[in-house]
Structures are given as structure tokens and as C-alpha cells.
Amino acid sequence: MSDFYQNGIVTDFHNLTRRPVAALEAELADFSRRRPMSLILPSLYSELEGPALAAIVEELARVPYLAEVVIGLDRADREQFRHAREFFSRLPQPHRILWNDGPRLGALDAELEAQGLSPRLPGKGRNVWFCSGFVQASGRGAVVGLHDCDILTYDRGLLARLFYPVAHPHFNYEFCKGYYPRLAEGKLNGRVSRLLVTPLLRALKRIHGPLPYLEYLDSYRYPLSGEFAMRAEVLDSLRIPADWGLEIGVLSELHRNHSTKRLCQVDLADAYDHKHQPVSEADASAGLNRMSLDIAKALYRKLATQGVTFSAEGFRTIKATYYRLALDLIEAYAHDAEMNGLRLDRHAEERAVELFAANLLEAGSAFLDNPRERPFIPSWNRVRAAIPDLPARLHAAVEADNAGEV
Q: Is this structure's pTM higher than 0.90?
């Protein structure tokens, strides 16, 4: 059961009464007449073979208010794309699959690359960016939602709660972020959010003062969640990071472009579980190791635009302050877990904190050594300015792929 506390400067929608999903969906179906809703699903082909996505599709097939479902499909060859079309055919809503590795989208990507506009890194950010362009070109949705395809505890109530604050015709919210407790198999999860982001934000506030940006980020109860909904026009100017800093980068862009009075967060579920990333201590290009580096760089880059000056000595201070705060939080998490009958491996938690602390220095060195790094994919406003007809051609290419012309 959620509390009712309004935390920070972002409006919080709690789960106070366990309102029936059918009641939420009935209202959303009514809202959809004024604000039709589109859903983006960024997916790897391998997720079609996993335990989560089939159940997600079964739940989505019962959702009565969606105007369209847009699936971004990565790492799929021709036969796998054909299988994906069959896999998603059970959806009764209008739906399209972006075959990101197919020849049509590949040709458009090459055209973007020639203009310096192509996403340079493969991954979720690139996938979401192309899906965003298609959603804008299709014009079906006034509100656009997104969630991952590996949620093992998915039910359609999660989606209804995610859409509700932005789809409501008498609310003025432009963006909604989901949050939830990360619990699975009797364990407390969510290590990167708990052990990196929260203590790092508090360390940065202690060192650099109560900057509005830091207060804003610290208002989100789960800043790394992959579930959010927004008005379609927000996508126009949104620059999406191509690396693991996607979620922090999106929140940073919203802070830059929109009033915090128009942003909110919502309690989506009593428990949430999805595919867990390994720590990958020995490989800085994978797992939580890579994620922590990218998140730290995303925060440093944003703070630099706020006028914060960094130095090698400053990054050492950040590391030391973060490390002390993170260790104190481990103590609090351990006690909280014990009271709730959950397991928490304190040795593994401290090893993760040690890795994250080292990566704060590594990310700082990368930030200082490469000031010309361009981590964001250009906004679709910029793409339209450079190649005005590209969104229409993207829409036509996806339609041709989904019509069977492959």
C-alpha cells in the first residue's frame, strides 16, 4: 500500500485504493476520444523467445483504449522479422513493427548518417528514437507511452495507471514517469537506482549546493524506470541519449524544456521484476559496470550545462562523498529488508558500491578527456529541418515492411 506523501517538486500519483483496472480502462476509453493513445515497445528479437513478452502481448490484447502499438524490433534477420509479424498478429489494435535491421530502414539510416543525424550506437535509445519518429509520422496518438518488453510481473493495470495522468482531458500533465518497488524471489533489487543514483545525487547536492536540477531529479522515486508516457508534441524536441543514460537523459531534457508543474510520477505496481543485468565487474562495456559509467557521464554533462565546473580534484571529492553516503544507505536498506522478510547480500552491495565509486572517477576522466562527445541523438525537429520528407518516407517504409513486401 502506497503512502500519500508528495515528495519533492514532481506531482506524485499514489496507489491508495487498489482501484479496479476495469474502472480505469473505462475512463481511458472515454479519454481516448479526445486524446488517442499510442504505445511504443522497444524489443530485441530474443525477447520474443523469452518468458515475459508473450504474456505482455496477451495482456495488451485486452486493452480497449489504444489507438496503435508500435514495436521497435532489433537484431532480427528476414525470417525473424516474419516471425515477429506473426507473433504480434494476435494484437487486435492497429500495430506496426519497425524492422530496424531491414533494408528499408537501413537505407534511411544511411541517409541520416550522411547528414550527421544518425544514431551512432545500437541499443534501446536508437530503437526508441526511430519508433518516436514513426509515431509522429503516423499521427494516430496524442499521448505516447513506452515500456520495456522483459517485465515478468506485467499486467494491464500498469499501463492504465501510466497513461491516466497524461490522457485525462482535465489534467495538464505533459509527462508521467512510473515507479514501483523492485522485489523478486524474496530479494531487494534495483541496485543501480538505490546504490548509485540516489547517493550520487545527494553527494552532488552536498558539494554543489541545492541546484534546481538536482532537487528535480531527486524528486523522482525511481528515476531509472523504463516506463513513461507523454504528450506526442513532447517528442518533437526531445533529444534521446544513445547509451545507458537514456532515462536520466530524458528526465534532463524534460527539465530543460518543460515546467516541473507539468511533470508527474505514478505508482504502477506493488512489485516489479524484469531481466536482471549482471554487474560485469571485469568488463566495463557490459552490465551494471557500463550502465554506471554512462549514467555518471550523463549527470556530469547536464551539470556542466548548468554552469558547474569540474576538475580531476573535484571528481575525487565526488567519489569520496558518494562512497560514504552509499555505505550509509546500505545499512538502511539492510534493516528495511530484514523488517520485511527480504534477503539482501551486504557483501555484494558493498562490492557494487566500490565498483560504482571507481566508475565515478572513470566517467569524470572520460568527461574531461572528450569535451566534444555528442551523446544525444538529434531531435526529430532537427531531422525535419534537414530532410523534411524523411518522417513520411520512414512511415512508408514501415508500412511496406508490414504489408509483407520483404
A: yes
